[in-house]
Write a structure and sequence with these properties.
Blueprint lengths: L4 H14 L12 H8 L3 H13 L3 E4 L3 E4 L4 E4 L7 H7 L4 E12 L2 H7 L6 E11 L2 E11 L16 H7 L4 E12 L2 H7 L6 E11 L5 E10 L3 E4 L5
Parallel strand pairs: 3-10
Antiparallel strand pairs: 1-2, 4-5, 5-6, 6-9, 7-8, 8-9
Helix pairs in contact: 1-3, 2-3
């Protein structure tokens, strides 16, 4: 399969970024220096840098050229009563969502164990691509027992907050269990998140209970670019 030269160059620059050959937030070498380093034309270098900028790995600045984008979204690991929408809104950021799919499924053994409901129970399954300030942030899947929200499939979750919807319907969710894993990305995840094959993903699995029921009402699985996320641990005093 033919791979454009600029793509090969962008992959090499990308590897230098993630291996800390370039310091975080530093100005990377100039186009002229990169031309000499890789023995290619300036057009090839510009295309390679443009590709990395489109992936939010580089930022072009006036007078300085490209710098490494070290902006990372904070992921709280506290027992939070706020979802992503509320948390980032508090930080002054704009959260939007694109609904990839929504359907009603039969509860599997895996979901039965997580949500503490019987196998075969009807489960609402929502998959969204979520954006922060217009930039792709995560693929988020939610699994919710239909018993608690019988009309949830009629709601449009491309706007607003899932947890706000729950609160409006009398349930106040709170994360009681969280599992975090770093792994190799899948092809479909790379497609939706616009990341390279070498980019690992962070997978955050949250189980939220309700103070009204004291039972799990939501299993969420959040998949995001591991290089663009950071963990924030807080202990209750």
């Amino acid at each position: 399969m033919f791979i454009p030269k600029y793509k090969n160059i962008s992959d090499k620059i990308y590897q230098e970024i993630i291996s800390n050959t370039f310091y975080t937030e530093s100005v990377i070498p100039t186009e002229e220096e990169l031309c000499k380093q890789f023995n290619v034309s300036r057009t090839t270098i510009r295309n390679a840098l443009g590709l990395l900028a489109n992936q939010n790995l580089l930022i072009r600045t006036k007078g300085k050229g490209y710098i490494i984008n070290d902006t990372k979204e904070d992921i709280s690991t506290t027992q939070d009563t706020l979802g992503l929408y509320e948390t980032k809104n508090k930080d002054g950021k704009i959260i939007t969502s694109e609904v990839i799919s929504k359907n009603i499924i039969s509860c599997s053994a895996f979901l039965s164990n997580k949500l503490k409901v019987e196998e075969g129970t009807l489960i609402y399954h929502l998959t969204r691509l979520r954006y922060i300030d217009g930039k792709k942030y995560s693929i988020t899947e939610n699994y919710i027992p239909l018993t608690y929200f019988p009309t949830i499939n009629n709601h449009d979750f491309s706007m607003g907050s899932l947890w706000n919807y729950m609160k409006e319907n009398g349930f106040h969710p709170k994360i009681i269990e969280q599992t975090i894993e770093i792994r190799t990305s899948l092809e479909i995840e790379r497609f939706y998140l616009s990341i390279e094959q070498e980019t690992p993903v962070m997978v955050i699995e949250n189980i939220a209970t309700s103070t009204e029921l004291n039972k799990p009402i939501d299993l969420s699985i959040i998949i995001t670019n591991a290089y663009k996320s950071k963990l924030h641990f807080t202990n209750d005093i």
